[in-house]
Amino acid sequence: MTARTDAPVDPAPGAPEPAAPSAAALAAVLADLRAALPADAVVTDPEALRDRARDGSATPPTGDPVALVLPSGTPEVSAVLRAAHAHGVPVVPQGALSGLAGGANAVPGAILLSTARMTAIRRIDPVDQVAVVQPGVVTKDLVDAVAAQGLFYPPDPASYAWSTVGGNIATNAGGMRCVKYGVTRDFVRALEVVLADGTVVRTAPGTVKAVAGLDLTGLVVGSEGTLAVVTEATLGLLPAPGPDRGVCATFATVADALAAANAVVASPHRPSTLELLDDVVLAALVAYDPDAGLPAGAAAMLLAITDEAGARGAADVAAYEAVVRAHGALTVDVAHEPERLDALLRARRSFNQAMRAVRGGSINEDVAVPRTRLADLLDRLADVSAQVGLPIGTGGHVGDGNLHPVIAFDPADPAQVAAAAEAHQRVLGLAVELGGTVTGEHGIGTEKRSALAGELGDRVLAIQRGIKAVLDPAGILNPGKKL
Length: 483
Description:
Alpha-Beta Plaits, single chain
């Protein structure tokens, strides 16, 4: 495994976790797995298991897995879960390990169920405007495949070039286009899933409308593999949009940038992307990439993009330019060509790397608050930064209130590691205090379980754990995560 420079955020307490399986149970489940799957689909090599033991988060695994399985379709997933259920062995579903909350991390004695071989795009239907895919399909591959037929799959997590559809469904992934199109859940029509005992069910028909039962599809989306394993997804598509074009502006204060962002959202010219970077991030970007062309002394940057076609897109850009100038922009760059827009996006795309380079390590937060509380959030984050003595740079999706504060620290300095962990907990508490959530799109995993009761309340949390108990009575699906 490659060395990590993240803060070691310890898993937080949550619902009671099942005891590790006995040696006899592990031996029995391995025998069943080898009987049910091809020989190369059951991996027990210790180095291979270590490589798959954790996702992209700062949270370590809680134990060692017993095996990695690589099913190629629904029948093999069902066989894995039947064996695990029979012997009381936990199963951790995994995609590309691009998650940022510990949701795919190993637990003691777990079977790691990888979707790496489930990569079929079964159908793209331009009439019904749906795609039917297996969960291991890489998001970008789906986007490219539907684009070739003049269609559009809007969800765009930052990891879309390597993350999988199944992982996006597990976390209800978002991205920069959420301000206009919404999140992954908004494009999931129906799912085929395997329950904890190996039963295969479909959650809904693939129609646009379906209210005959409770919304099991929506329940599974965002459940982080704790309720069922997705083996096929029917996804809604849209006609292809126009080319991206937009405006990038810098401001003397964050307040000016927020006022401009609010004016853009309130206008008839709805952007497909509306992003903010604060002064800490801009200073980090200047140091990280001196050739990015960022002006010195700016306290905030706002990026507004439209994907409307033709004259409507041109009108959107003109409206964004007028708004940012009216709110005192220091600099304004307008891009109508893809190459120019890519240059403007360069800073936004380098945000996390630049913040990590400040001191060598980072914790990437994922909080969301009502847009009316964004100014409070940014002010209070500055207070937290001063109190713990670490830089906290913030950027993200200002159009829907989902920001990503990044806590920079030196991973070789124990005092800074401890301060970063303290800042992490304080940022989570701050989000809830401001009427928001500890995660807008990354998920809970293990990293944020300590904040669940504060956000949901004991009664709602108990209801959610009760739902899990109905679908997974033995508690084998991704235990110790989400709830």
